[in-house]
Amino acid sequence: MRICYLRVENFRGIKEATILLPNHAVLIGDNNTGKTTLLEAIDLALGPDRLNRMPPIDEHDFFQGQYLPTRIEAEVVDDKTEPEANGEVNTVPAEELIAVGTEVEEAPTIRIDVTVVDLNDEQKAHFGDVIEFWDNEQCKLYEQPNPEGVDPGHISEAIRVTFLGWYEPEEDDFQAKTFFTRSLTEAESGQPFRKTDKQRCGFLYLRSLRTGSRALSLERGSLLDIILRLKELRPQMWEATLSHLADYDVASDPALGISGVLDSINASLKKYVPKEWGIQPHLKVSNLTRDHLRKVITAFIATGDGDHAAPFYRQGTGTLNMLVLAMLSQIAEDKQNVIFAMEEPETAIPPYAQKRIVHEVRKLSAQTIFTSHSPYVLEEFQNEETIVLRREADGALSQAEITLPESVKLKRYRQEFRTRFCEGLLARRILIAEGATETQSFPVVCRRLAEIDPGKYASLEALGICIIDAGTDTQIADLATLYKSLGKRVFGLCDNQDATAEKAIADKVEVLFMHDEHGFEDLVLKNTTEDALKRYAAAVTWPQHLQHKHPSPEDDIYTALGDLFKWGKANWIAADFLAQCTEAEIPQWLRDKAAELKALCDPPSAADVTAEICEDAEQQPIEVEADGDGAN
């Protein structure tokens, strides 16, 4: 059993999205792309306890918070209106308007469609009449009127589920229901997809921030709650616990003094009201209801070598996450057929444990859907299992697969995944630099300039830009092709190139930053100040061989620093020099490109532009000519 198709409309930050899922998948992309939203959408459709919330959705679950009908004023004008000779249309007087009306668009509805395939025999028997067929090769529903067409191996049984959420004006509240998709077209009201149906699908959504804190509690939907439900231990557990607590009277020992106070209150109470109104106040452990017990019962875990035990949620975050893994194993063994969706398994977990979690969860479940920012997690997934998400400004979410260019062989991709490729896959914007020196130095320059003048410059981190070392100028175009195919914004940074090489790179990137020197070190040395060079020369520890060659570096500072930069190429020497420069000491080309990159990635708003124009206008001197009488 697995989810193969997901369609989301008007849910949170997603206006629309269509996602095809493999047997196991990891969703990647920059923060706020929509990874968690997709998992939440699946949980709305398949999660057995999600609709128990009241209300199940709220205002913020609708795209851009729009859940009311939209009113559009529509004006219909005289048909005789004609354009003038110059192409401009005459303004029609109000009295010549034929009609003024109001069109009302329907209220937005959250819709989530999920297709589940590869059903087991028990599921086939349970879902019976609502079963359809899915073509795994075409990745679409099989709708041919030929019954024999479902026999090939790539055609599998499937069920389609639709979640609908909307605002109900009469109730002044939000409503949500889940249906079998097929029934929405066959029946007027649709066949509900009930909680018992959802339990057959076995979808478990493990949120990174909440799963560990609730794992060993008895709150609804916790891992322990799921395990108890699978073992059908609920009635005996609750009745026995409530009966035992009902017999326990807190602080009944007179030596404690509390019972005496309660007796005094009881005596006073009898003076004012008859006993039928209430007598004998005494203390109990809890409210003695199932719901209250769910909130207060907590598992304790022994810590250290002694017998002392502490609540499970007081353990370390890493311990909690490993506890979650152990409980997942228990659930998988009991249920045998589950779909696990898990957010960021790397949280507070060392790399070797991250890989173990992914390996074990994949082995235990029919399907796994992860989100992650960890290269150690991403390494456990093949390229076809890695779904790169991109969301446009209008809310359209799309997916892309990793397709390597010819110059990037699979072996190299895997060997350099952590150092060169992973960070780019997780970013929205990428700056591909020619070599290590540029990769080290340009972020330092941007960060330094942002400290000096934050209004004009910004660090690469603040702009959401990942810088990648291409290794050589010939690799920039191919790497740009890879990331551009995934919907990333790609920029290039390199030394002076001939016309052919420059065009080859420029055609693959959004903007190419190319300086006129044949080496980054030359760019720095020729365009900074002598004072900056001497200050750095006096502060740095020189290697022994250069000390002998340049006993007094300040006597020939350009040659001495040139040798030092060459010796420390790709070893942060140029970056360290730039980090201690003032704005005037940083080469003008670097300042210009840092400002240009900020303008490209973080353009000023209309309000900022207006404010800047007004500020400039206020600072301009006002010249007033004297009139004939000498008055200004």
Automatic annotation (TrEMBL):
Sequence ranges assigned to domain Endonuclease GajA/Old nuclease/RecF-like AAA in this UniProt record: 1-73, 284-377
Assigned keywords, A-Z: Endonuclease, Hydrolase, Nuclease
Sequence ranges assigned to domain OLD protein-like TOPRIM in this UniProt record: 425-496
Gene3D superfamilies: P-loop containing nucleotide triphosphate hydrolases (3.40.50.300)
Entry's Gene Ontology molecular function annotations: endonuclease activity
InterPro entries associated with the record: AAA_GajA/Old/RecF-like (IPR041685), Bact_Antivir_Def_Nuclease (IPR051396), P-loop_NTPase (IPR027417), TOPRIM_OLD (IPR034139)
PANTHER family hit by this protein: ATP/GTP PHOSPHATASE (PTHR43581), ATP_GTP PHOSPHATASE (PTHR43581:SF4)
Name of the molecule in the record: Putative ATP-dependent endonuclease of the OLD family
Organism listed in the record: Halomonas saccharevitans
